[in-house]
Write a structure and sequence with these properties.
Radius of gyration: 19 Å
Largest sheet: 4 strands, antiparallel
Strand order of the largest sheet: 1-28-27-26
Strand content: over 45%
């Protein structure tokens, strides 16, 4: 299934329990679609959410609202049923808001262009944590719920670990010449995998974040823009070539390409709530929904076939000689800094009441 959005999409997210998928677009619009396995997806909501692009979109409050972030530095909560604005925080960040993730039932995290990560607590109706940890834009975040830590990647080439219980930056990796673009936690919390703009996957052992313990180079020199965890041993990658691939971690190998979104870079990947569908967006203005059973058919045979094969050839390590290319930087840095002061207290008070 595919949908022509008419505009470049920056983010994608699925409803936590219903067959709904949302996208944030470059023109500031927020779209919501209802999908089924046997019919064309239907657009049920279109909202002009922001004066500038809508870079981040996440369902919150058990799917009753959609939170969006923008280069206009605002965060907006939109009612899923009516499309009405529940609340808007105009002065959420000092820079463009790039990423939003859910933490707990009542907390979310946001990341901006200036390397700042903030945590918003709807119970306290305010920003409860703020970490100015990176020197460049926040490219991705993930949450380790058992230890209450946010892991963030940045265009400055570092991975950070923010401890919410202690309200401090617990660890940060050494600087790398590679822009880190995406991050997932694998192997039951023992490994952290980051992707880079020159196609490497960097593996970190939990608790040893100073430097990576392993480097998987099979995608080099093509940027791997997004990682999506399938299970503890496998993840799905989206690259600038438009390919979507299934990858095994420890042993590290490309199990098989499973789809080709288009010839344009893949911008986002997400699973439906039941993992029956994989959603993908790219620079071709199309939202595509893939049947996971179809995508994974034959991957078990491929996995067994490759089990005895060495991970990669040593001669591929020369990718460091390639000049760095800032895929994300240009897109992320064109935000206007003009914004209006707002109250985070009022924002989350309104959000809690309507949620």
């Amino acid at each position: 299934m595919e949908i022509n959005l008419g505009q470049l999409a920056f983010d994608i997210d699925f409803h936590p329990s219903q067959q709904l998928v949302t996208t944030g677009l470059i023109n500031g619009d927020l779209h919501l679609y209802r999908y089924t396995s046997d019919s064309v997806p239907e657009r049920v909501l279109q909202v002009h959410a922001h004066s500038e692009s809508c870079r981040a979109a996440r369902f919150i409050n058990n799917g009753h609202a959609i939170l969006t972030g923008s280069p206009d530095c605002s965060i907006l909560a939109t009612d899923v049923e009516t499309g009405a604005a529940i609340a808007r925080l105009e002065d959420a960040h000092g820079g463009a808001v790039n990423k939003l993730i859910n933490l707990t039932e009542s907390t979310v995290a946001s990341g901006d262009d200036e390397g700042c990560i903030k945590v918003w607590d709807t119970r306290q109706q305010s920003c409860c944590n703020s970490f100015k940890v990176h020197e460049e834009y926040i490219s991705d975040m993930t949450f380790a719920a058992d230890s209450m830590k946010i892991l963030g990647t940045s265009g400055d080439g570092t991975l950070s670990v923010c401890n919410l219980r202690r309200n401090k930056v617990q660890a940060q990796s050494e600087f790398s010449e590679e822009e880190l673009l995406s991050v997932v936690i694998m192997k039951n919390g023992r490994k952290v995998v980051c992707s880079s703009h020159i196609g490497n996957l960097l593996l970190y052992s939990w608790g040893c974040f100073n430097d990576c313990s392993d480097r998987f180079v099979d995608f080099s020199p093509n940027s791997v823009d997004v990682l999506l965890k399938l299970d503890e041993d496998r993840l799905i990658t989206g690259s600038e070539t438009g390919l979507i691939s299934l990858v095994g971690i420890l042993p590290n190998r490309v199990i098989q390409p499973i789809a080709e979104h288009s010839e344009y870079p893949v911008e986002g990947l997400a699973f439906s709530h039941d993992k029956k569908f994989l959603g993908s967006i790219a620079h071709d203005q199309m939202l595509k929904l893939w049947d996971m059973d179809d995508l994974l058919q034959g991957s078990t045979k491929t996995l067994k076939h490759q089990a005895a094969v060495e991970d990669s050839d040593s001669d591929e390590m020369d990718m460091d000689n390639n000049p760095p290319k800032s895929k994300k930087g240009t897109k992320r840095k064109n935000a206007s800094k003009d914004r209006v002061s707002g109250s985070s207290n009022n924002f989350f008070a309104d959000l809690q009441m309507d949620g």
